[in-house]
Amino acid sequence: MIYGYIRVSTKEQNEDRQLIAMKEYKVPFKNIYMDKQSGKDFKREQYLRLIKKLKEDDLLIIKSIDRLGRNYEEIIEQWRYITKEKRADIMVIDMPILDTRRGKDLMGTFLSDIVLQVLSFVAENERDNIKQRQAEGIAAALAKGVKFGRPESPTPNNFYDVHKRWRNKELSLKAAARECDLPASTFFDKSKRYETAVRQK
Q: What residues have CB less than 8 Å from 154, skipping those under 6 apart?
């Protein structure tokens, strides 16, 4: 049997390029398994279903090694599991040397292993670079004053009067929040920010 595996990192990413490649290699549509999640590990529902299906002499086709995953050690481990324990074959479309049906002699296996290890390292290194770029982008945005998360709820018109009565112990936190039509935690957070702003003036 021929199987195909497709992975995109997010639900927004498009899998069409990988699907077209699978069709070109005559992978039956019912044998194509697809996950829409990160390649940081192999805890992926469709991938695990596929692995259970694989039998000796089956062929697994993937578009590129980073579609299999982005964790260097785990890619090597999964490759070994599929080819040595399941005794199935793997073909990487974008890297013809990574086709376990060819060169099963000692030299062919040796070359494939070297290429696999290099590409797996590159895939993981790229994942680390993406995380680094994301962290740098967030830091730059924060430095420019960009705020992440939900926008802050507007401050009620009676907030300052209610805050004063709360601080004078005329109202409990719960009662003060209720008068402002806010959750108690939101009223408390707004109060802390207001008091900090007043102290800094």
A: none
Average pLDDT over the chain, rounded to whole?
82
| Residues 162/163/164/167 CA torsion (nearest 10 deg) | 120
User: In the chain, what is the greatest distance between 2 CA atoms, to the nearest angstrom?
Assistant: 86
Handedness of CA 40, 44, 48, 51 (dihedral sign): negative
CB 42 within 8 A of CB 69: yes
Mean pLDDT of 143-157: 71
Angle at the Cα of 158 from the Cα atoms of 157 and 161, rounded to 5 degrees? 135
User: CA 123, CA 76: separation in Å to the nearest integer?
Assistant: 12
* Least confidently predicted of 7-11, 90-94, 120-124, 172-176: 120-124
The CA-based dihedral angle spanning residues 13, 16, 18, 24, taken in that order and rounded to the nearest 10 degrees? 180
Q: Show Cβ contacts of residue 69 under 8 Å, excluding neighbours closer than 6 positions.
A: 7, 39, 40, 41, 42, 75, 78, 123
Q: What is the pLDDT of residues 76-102, one digit of tens each?
A: 888 888 888 888 999 999 888 788 887
Active site residues: 9
Q: How far apart are CA 58 and CA 197, in angstroms?
A: 67
